[in-house]
Amino acid sequence: MVVGNHPAVNDWPGYSEAGAWREFVGGQLAAKALGVAAECIVKSLILISPKTGEYFGVVISGVSRLNIKRACSELAVPKLKFASAEQIKTLTGFRIGGVPATSLRRCKEILIDNKVLVRDTVIGAGGDEYCGMEFSPSELAHAIGAKAVDIAE
């Protein structure tokens, strides 16, 4: 179910074409625009191992922060950093703010936070920062082979 392409997005406080994705990092504005709890918004993150160049995907609540040390431990990788906008676009074909969770299948491994899995449905990016999709997080985890862990704060 597509829930986005909200017509008032240009009127949101702090909105700018170049920096629109920054406003979605916390999920607060998307939740407000869609009339849902902020915990219902999820973000798809892509990390990279500086040593191997391998990518790792993470799905967490839009109001949570990733604990990178826990992610490293769960993935048995000594160091991870956030992939750059260019790396994300090259890997997934999508820009930051619009990366659908299904595109994380291109990553070596994928983690999904347990706090996301307690919800019946969540809303994640649907291809750009103006469009979202509602889906079952447990079905997503199964479809993309994500491991359920506690990695968000």
Textual characterization of the structure:
The structure is a single chain. With 153 residues, the protein is α/β, with parallel strands linked by helices. The chain has 6 helices and 7 strands, in the order ααββαβαβαββαβ. The strands form 2 sheets. Strands 3-1-2-4-7 form a 5-stranded mixed β-sheet. The protein has a two-stranded antiparallel ribbon with strand order 5-6. A hairpin with a 6-residue loop joins strand 1 and strand 2. The protein is globular. The N terminus is likely disordered.
* Rg (CA only): 15 Å
The DSSP helix count reads 6
* Unreliable residue runs: 1-26
Structural class: alpha/beta
How many E-type strands?
7
How much strand? 15-25%
Task: Give the proportion of residues in helices.
Answer: 25-40%
Element-by-element helix/strand order: HHEEHEHEHEEHE
Biggest β-sheet: strands ordered side by side in the sheet: 3-1-2-4-7
Report how far apart the termini are. Answer: 28 Å
Mean pLDDT: 84
